[in-house]
């Protein structure tokens, strides 16, 4: 069967969610002008913003076969995350019986390559299909083309829920270290809620700088902002120095948007490091006080207790004692989803009063 290939940025055929920088080259999370500005004081964030974590394309097609051509910035190079999780893509299809998007396939490609083709979709019929393509988590994608059967159609598909969520955080937020992109907890929540989520997780670099708040605030009409930076900014005094200004800067642009401030999850390595336990508990108390102070001022800011995410067997939830595996990421998705839904529902009720 002859195949035709269409660039993923072709708006006549795809709807891309999770990025405001699609006019820039590739699939980036922050605008080039913001990356250039941020590079002056945090070069790691400037680079990591070129990684496509949380970006997804939605489309409909009746093609029984779906191929993909991908060009990424570099070869896989992480020693605690699979090449598929770092640089690969995966495909979800809407299942009417389950009434949700379900996993279909992933690009189990040769990790020594920066350019590859993959037969990603295999279906028995030419029935209509609603699909989500999740982009790489820890790598930048330069170009992506989707191939379908020559006589098939391909049109954009859209989220059913118009709520927009923005999350800022660490390597855990970015996706370290799940096995494939669809297992990232923000991608899981995006499917469950059928909504757009902007992922601003920056590995080892979430220090709550004022300029980051300004760049993230470019996302228009957000319904919720989540700050999950303790694991980075809370290793020293930067959380205390920067967080309040970070919040106030964001609120200049979005004064009425509810904010969730999360403390970090339990790390297995905490068991063997009393200093880490002491610091984690200190910042949990400090974050709770920050939230309480804001609430007493009438602000709609909420606390998410990350220490309660893993109910049992918390040492089994990570790859390396810190970064969630797929099991840990699913537990995060469940816990965060519950809090997100609670805050959004409360905010919607308050709007009606």
TrEMBL record:
Pfam families: GxDLY, Lipase_GDSL_3
Domain SGNH hydrolase-type esterase span(s) in chain numbering: 163-341
Annotated SGNH hydrolase-type esterase N-terminal domain residues: 3-152
A GO term, aspect molecular function: phosphatidylcholine lysophospholipase activity
InterPro entries cross-referenced by the UniProt entry: Ester_Hydrolysis_Enzymes, GxDLY, SGNH_hydro, SGNH_hydro_sf
Lineage: superkingdom: Bacteria
Protein name, entry field: SGNH hydrolase-type esterase domain-containing protein
């Amino acid at each position: 069967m002859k195949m035709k290939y269409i660039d993923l940025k072709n708006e006549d055929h795809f709807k891309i969610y999770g990025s405001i920088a699609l006019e820039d080259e590739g699939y980036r999370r922050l605008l080039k002008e913001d990356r250039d500005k941020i590079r002056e004081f945090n070069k790691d964030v400037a680079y990591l913003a070129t990684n496509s974590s949380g970006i997804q394309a939605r489309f409909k097609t009746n093609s029984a076969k779906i191929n993909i051509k991908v060009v990424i910035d570099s070869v896989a190079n992480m020693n605690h995350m699979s090449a598929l999780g770092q640089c690969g893509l995966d495909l979800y299809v809407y299942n009417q019986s389950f009434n949700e998007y379900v996993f279909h396939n992933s690009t189990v490609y040769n990790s020594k390559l920066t350019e590859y083709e993959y037969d990603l979709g295999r279906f028995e019929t030419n029935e209509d299909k609603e699909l989500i393509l999740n982009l790489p988590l820890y790598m930048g994608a330069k170009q992506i083309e989707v191939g379908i059967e020559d006589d098939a159609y391909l049109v954009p598909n859209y989220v059913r829920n118009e709520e927009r969520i923005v999350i800022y955080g660490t390597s855990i937020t970015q996706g370290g270290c799940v096995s494939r992109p669809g297992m990232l907890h923000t991608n899981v929540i995006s499917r469950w809620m059928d909504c757009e989520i902007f992922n601003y997780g920056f590995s080892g670099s979430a220090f709550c700088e004022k300029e980051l708040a300004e760049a993230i605030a470019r996302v228009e009409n957000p319904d919720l902002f989540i700050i999950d930076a303790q694991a980075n900014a809370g290793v020293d005094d930067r959380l205390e120095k920067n967080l309040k200004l970070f919040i106030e800067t964001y609120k200049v642009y979005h004064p009425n948007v509810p904010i969730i401030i999360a403390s970090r999850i339990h790390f297995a390595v905490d068991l063997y490091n009393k200093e880490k336990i002491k610091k984690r508990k200190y910042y949990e108390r400090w974050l709770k006080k920050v939230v309480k102070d804001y609430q007493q001022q009438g602000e709609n800011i909420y606390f998410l207790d990350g220490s309660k995410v893993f109910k049992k067997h918390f040492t089994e939830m990570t790859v390396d004692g810190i970064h969630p595996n797929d099991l840990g990421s699913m537990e995060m998705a469940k816990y965060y989803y519950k809090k997100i839904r609670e805050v959004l529902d409360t905010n919607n009720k308050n709007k009606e009063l």
